[in-house]
Fold this sequence. Notes:
The protein is α/β, with parallel strands linked by helices.
Amino acid sequence: MTDIIINRGKHHIPAYIAGTGNKRAGVILIHEVWGLNRNIRSLADRLASEGYVVLAPDLISHTGITDKIDQSILAEVANPSTRDEAQKKLRAAMSPIMSEEFGKETVERLKICFSYLKREYKVEKIAVMGFCFGGTYSYSLAASEPTLAAALPFYGHAPEKEEELAKISCPIIAFYGIKDIALVQGLPQLETSLKKLNKDFQYKVYPNAGHAFMNDTNPTTYNKEAAEDAWKKALQFLKKHL
């Protein structure tokens, strides 16, 4: 369990790695928009305790946004008296990660992480798991890395274009909370599209849960019942495919 930096070409990727005693199966763990924080390191340690080599890369601190926002802004967004200004502040802070260029670069960095696990630790099978920002990029990596063994996005956006969905070659299990309305509304269409493409896709929507229900460091979003069930299902899925 240690911090490392992966250097490849122009990329210098800080990361946290755990469970390096296992040489067979690995997980790339992708953080929320809050970055590689205590919550993600804790999840990496939990996965490592299950016997996986876990690599949690820091994909956004180089943009500077993690210095500008923290979870307190969610309280400001939820408060009607501060919502408008908070939303403006949040949009401005997040603009560096909304560009197409950032998206392409992030997928490239994830593929470097994938290669790193294969090369340095001789990991045979690799899955990706991610939350919010990380959930979205879990879908993206599934559509970009043909030898990925499995993907487990938590409350992420799947690619909208069918040609991107068609590139997915690994099984996916996705997790959502029913209160995460914008994402949940799109799930039936996503399921239909992936079924038409003969993709192995399943999802679980939890009642009384919303966005970020897995984050036990955020009392306003954490849902213990949903988190425990999702973790159990995630471990079963990893065991099956890794």
